[in-house]
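job 3f2a | input accepted
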Amino acid sequence: MSENNIPTSPDGIPGWGGYEFGRRLGLQAAAVVAASGALATLTDISVAHAASKSDTIKIGYVSPQTGALADFAGPDAFVLKEIRASSLYAKGITIGKTKYKIEITEKDTQSLGNVAVQVTQELINSGVDLILVSSAPETTIPVATTCEQYKVPCVSTVVPWEAYWGGFTGATISPEGAATGTGPKYNSMFFFGVPQFAGCFVPMWERVQATTKCNTNVAEMFPNDADGNAFRAAFGPTVGAMFPKGGYNFVDGGAYTDLTSDYSSMIATFKTGGKNGAACDLFINCPLPPDFQSFWTQASQQDYNPKLATVAKVMLFPTDAYALGDLSNNIATDAWFTPYSPYKSSLTGQSANAFAAAYQSAGHGQWVQSMGSTYSLFEVAIEGLRRVKNPHDRLSLAKALQTVSYDGMCGPINMNLKSSNPLLASPAKGIGMVMPVGVQWKPGSSDLVGHRKYKWSQWVVDNTLNKHVPLNGTLEPTNV
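job 3f2a | predicted structure (480 res):
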C-alpha cells in the first residue's frame, strides 16, 4: 500500500494495476503519435472533413487480424460481411433530409501497439468520421488515445474498463475502484471490469465449495506483465470487498516471466502453500495461452489438481480447448457473448443463435465470443448516428455515442446507466457494462441450429450476473 491507503502495483506505482496498465499504454501511444510528426496534417484534415457536406459516412474498423491476438479477430471477415449486408449499411441511413452511404475500411494492428497507432493515423488521414476498435488493451488503448488526441469519435470493446479509463490523461481510478478525474471527450466503450470478473467467478467457487467441501485457498497464476500485475493488485481486494464472508486466502505463485517453460516451483507452492500447509483448491489466472497450456499440463503431471479452475484471458476460444485436449474438461471462464442468449441484432432482428449457426454453417468453425462484440460495435455506431444532425460533426457524434442505450446482439448496452447496483451502473459517462456468464468447456455440442458436432464446446453453467442467459450445462468440479 502507498500513502493514504491507495493500492499499489507490484512495482510500487500508485493506482490500481489496470489503471497503470492503461496509463502506460496511453503514454506509449502518445509517444508514437508525437514521433510521427503528423499532428498538423491530421488536424487540418479532421477540421476540413467535419465541415464537409459529403453524403458518405466513413467508418474505420481496427483489430488484431494477425499476430498473437489474432484469435480475437478470427470472425471479422464473416461479421463484416453480415454488417455490410444489413439494410442500413447496404442501403444507407437518412439523417435529417440527407441520405448517407456508409463506407467501412478495415485495418490490421498485427497485435502491435505502434502499428495500431499507425493504422489509426491512416484512417484519420483518409477522413473517417468514426473509428471502431476491438480486442485487448494492447489494441484498443493505442487506438482510443490516438483518436482522442485528434478529436475523432471512437468506440472500443473487449478491454477491461479500468484499463481503458486509465489510458486517458486526467482519468484516474479511486482506491475503491471508481472512475474519477477527467475522462475522454471523443471516446466510449462497452465491456466489463474486475468486479464483473469476480461476480462471475466467485459464485462458481461457492457452488463447488458446497458440493465438494473444498477449501478457500485460491492459487493465483499471474505473470509479471501488465495484465498479470493488474490482476494481482486488484482481484483479491475486490473479491474481499464483494464477498467478505468467503474468507478466501490468496496464494500468489510468483510474478513469473511470460513464456516461462518450467512451472514446477509455482506448482509446489500451490500444492502446499495454503492455510495449514493445504493445497489451493481454487485457481485463478490471466496468462498468455501457451503459458497456461504449459502450466496446466505440468500441473496434471505433478498431481496438482484444483477442484475448480476459473481462468481469464485464456480458454476463450476453441483453439485454446483443442490445444489442451482432455485437460480442458470443466475449465471455467467468462463469456460476454453466447448463442444461447435471448438477444438479437438491432440491425436485422437475427437471433444470437442464428448468427452463430450461420457462422458455423459457412465453414468458419465453431462460434467465438468476439463475433458478438464486434457485431455490437457496428450496432452502437448506428445508434450514435441516429442521434446527430450532422454525422461529420465529430464532437456531436462523440457526445451522442456516450449516451447510446439500446438492446442488440450482446444484450442491453447503456453508455450512461444510473443504477443502485454498482455492477450494472456505468462507471462514467460513455462506458457500458456487459454482464458476463460463467461457462465451462465440456465434450460435445449443445443446441445450435445448423451446427456440426464439435469435440469441445462452451456450456453456460452460471448466470449469476445475467439471468437472461439460460443455463444449458451443469457446473462440475474441474477435478474430483
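job 3f2a | The chain has two domains: 17-192+340-433, 195-335+437-462.
job 3f2a | closed
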